[in-house]
């Protein structure tokens, strides 16, 4: 790994965590200026290089994913990059440049991530600065990554004070629990549905000091349940194909990474939610400039006591494709989560799927969801009938979706 780059990113980020909003805006303007040469080498963006950010077009993910050859500054074709990402998926060793596929979200096409070793080092430096306290870096850490695929981003850091274990998601949860007990991690990163399954099996990790979740939403009620079980509040790593968008701070708030990204918020019509239009100020191999994300962002307007000025948003609850459209009114996934978990709490498995004609609330076998049905009917103004079923199997993966909109 390029240690100097990782250290520079760590230092830059630690300073940014103490900046006020005006200082952060000035830092963004400097980073935007430095990014321009890479944009001039990127076919989709070359015509706009040197101009103000707002002069660049807003691009949907699907357009970007249609031709990655247009969206890199290295002169690589779409086919070349796809072959690299496929090879990485099958465990082929990567050189300086790494490409990989993100976890599918069902329905849409998968996103691709391309990064050189300097950018991976930058990402690692940023992550360590945001997620761990400086004192954590002086101690030995055993970091368990319970993720779909081993990422070159993390294996770059192997050695020194950091010991890593990659535990894939495919094996049964019993096996994962045994492996975790044996490894005895100090830091654990896992998707919410697996953390909840570990809790249900009574897993205790005696050395655990930091607990993180990513790749799926985790509600307040579930966060409280996990906190009570593990004795640590799980913190979010908000990572999307478009970049490292946010993180849960030590005070339990989810911040946007406003020091490293320009995140413009585009209203989702007739709701209190927004979509992020994302510009990453530090990615050069595969620039991300004004790319529209899928997640629904709900800013809280809070000033966080942790001191970081990055905007605070509510926990993520779902994607814009899962907003319910009911007889002229829209219901956000976060509203559905609040209505259902206000009744069921954070330890019952459930999924609510709506179409223009009906809503179905499914819960784990034996769990009566009738009171939650009443809450949903009240939330939706009885626009469509709500019915309960208790036949929801355990989450099969790869990603949990609790709130779903079905097109008829
Ligand atoms: Zn904070």
Key structural traits:
GMP Synthetase, Chain A, domain 3, 408 residues, binds zinc ion, 2 domains, Rossmann fold, 4-stranded mixed sheet, 11 helices, alpha/beta, 8-stranded mixed sheet, globular, 30% helix
**Cα-atom radius of gyration:** 21 Å
State the end-to-end CA separation.
50 Å
Q: Helix content range of the residues, please?
A: 25-40%
Beta-sheet strand percentage? Answer: 15-25%
CATH structural class of the largest domain: Alpha Beta
Q: Order the strands across the largest sheet as they lie in space.
A: 5-4-6-7-8-9-10-14
Q: What number is the mean pLDDT?
A: 92
| Number of extended strands | 20
Structure annotation, total helices = 11
Give the biggest sheet. 8 strands, mixed
> What is the assembly state of the chains in this entry?
single chain
Question: Can you walk me through this structure?
Answer:
The chain is α/β, with parallel strands linked by helices and 408 residues long. It has two domains: 3-313, ANL, N-terminal domain (Rossmann fold, 3-Layer(aba) Sandwich), CATH 3.40.50; 320-405, GMP Synthetase, Chain A, domain 3, CATH 3.30.300. The chain has eleven helices and 20 strands. The radius of gyration is 21 Å and the shape is globular. Residues 249, 251, 253, 255, 304, 306, 308 line the site of zinc ion (ZN).
